[in-house]
Amino acid sequence: MDESENQTSNPRIAAGAKAISDIIEARLSRRGFLAGAGAAAATTSLGCATGPQHSRLAKAPREFAFAEIARGGDGDHHAPDGYLTDLVLRWGDAVFPDAPTFDPYRQTAAAQERQFGYNNDFIGFYPLRSDGAEGQHGLLCVNHEYTSTRLMFPGLTDGRMLSQEECEVEMAAHGGTIIEIEQDRAGVWRPVLASQYNRRITAGSTPIEITGPAAGSDRLKTKDDPTGREVIGTVNNCAGGVTPWGTYLLAEENFNGNFLGALEPGHPETANHERYGVPGGWYQWGRYFDRFDVSKTPNEPNRFGWMVEVDILDPNSTPKKRTAMGRFKHEGAESVVAPDGRVVFYMGDDQRFDYVYKFITARAFDPEDRAANFDLLDEGTLYVARFDADGGLEWLPLIFGEGPLTPANGFNAQADVLIETRRAADLLGATPMDRPEDVEPDPATGRVYLMLTNNTRRTPEQIDAANPRANNAFGHIIEIIEPNGDFASTQSRWEILVRCGDPADSQAGALWNPATSDNGWFGSPDNCAIDPQGRLWVATDGNEATGANDGLWALSTDGEARGTGRAFFRAPNGAEVCGPRFTPDGETLFLAVQHPGDGDDASFEGPTTRWPDFKENTPPRPSVVAIRKASGGTIGG
Ligand code: FEO
Ligand code: CA
Ligand code: CA
Question: Taking the complete model, does pTM exceed 0.90, yes or no?
Fold first, then answer.
């Protein structure tokens, strides 16, 4: 994606401040020295450096057993020997029985509203029922993060502007898809087009209610919505989550890119919009729609950057933007029920030098009464993480009236704290991280895995214990340890699990278990999953910086193998790998292959691959694939 996506907009960094003042405590500088002296020597300390907090609450997960695939890159995808890869849904495939046949040369918004959207990212799976020999059924919830305009539409290589209809197609291709799928007798997953549950949610047409403490704020009111409580659409839906009560969360990530125009000088939203990079100007929608032009609708950006909740069992329900969960470039929202019944959501703000958050509901989850949980996300406390050099982690509450979050600093209500979550977190002294992506709790162990994808802008003066490399081109993974498995704790511990990059390159500062093969290391961790056996899987976005395509790797977290990567899946040229989602039996793995065919000069006419159809004149199509073992059984051995 455009390099500008990941500029810092954190003024603490822009002003040259150190990330945290008291950096590099002795324990971690020792490890840094070891990494510089030789990665193999350094990795011998993996897993034992900080001792007792690694005790598992459940028995250790099984080790991985599959034949690694080779590092590399070409126009097709690759899975290990003995595994089958089926295409489940491609961009433009029907979601409803009346959907028009995909025709990339005659795209319309009306057709796209009935078809699978573009750039599939998050995947949720909600098991519905099993009808014996007919196999499993479930609901697939898939985000459509963004549109790759030049790959999507023909005839853009001459620099022409998009038409209004093409902008409307893009808006219809954003959002999410909820679709029932079933497994046939051969084990192949197929969409059930006639299902009562199927639904498209889009940027252009879906009414969404704004709920929680910021709903009705003057700063959310526009000409089209004088109540500040209803907005059309959701955009840039990156990762997400499925809640314990069976709803689907779509995270609004790079919403700034959807806006054009300029605020009038001295406008009161100026500093707020700057902190989020608004307007990003990546899309042309604002030429035709006033709400995407900040000069005409200055409050519209405040209505994006939220977490959106959808009841997947009621296709007529109104999705809700849950403002209590904060406003930032939301990556994921994976959750876990804490021992006292409250529900804890872990969330990243994906930008260089931005933060990691945790939201804890005020009330407990009621497993006996689904509807009793429907508004759990409107009340609770949002916390931001401060990673201390001694391995401690403080979760700092963002509460109006506490600490610096007062009228003296421009916060006049909790609504202001939430609309300007980033600025509130700046004032609390949160730790600026190397682009936080997915954050995944493991309910069995009390541990949480945090993907930090990369940050080439961090200078040597800005390194800290939790972000220990300057010019961090390859990212790293942090393990958070919740004390005694209490996910609702506000005092945790943390440890670096791996530093990504090539362990054979002494300049890279990588840190892996020496058992990692030359295929097993990677760069730019992004999405991740914990499988039903408790094992971690990591997908990448940006692994091309290592000279190979993106993919999915198994990553051991326990025992002598801790810190060992193993290559499982390789994406076709230009694509990142998203999703990863296992069925509850661990026998199917769904992956979202996003922006296949992309590249510096890639276009509809000249993509870097025509995956998955490989037909002349047919553009590449982002698609969800299902991976199974040919012989049946658990993915990964
Ligand atoms: Fe859309 Fe942070 O990846
Ligand atoms: Ca992502
Ligand atoms: Ca990404």
Answer: yes
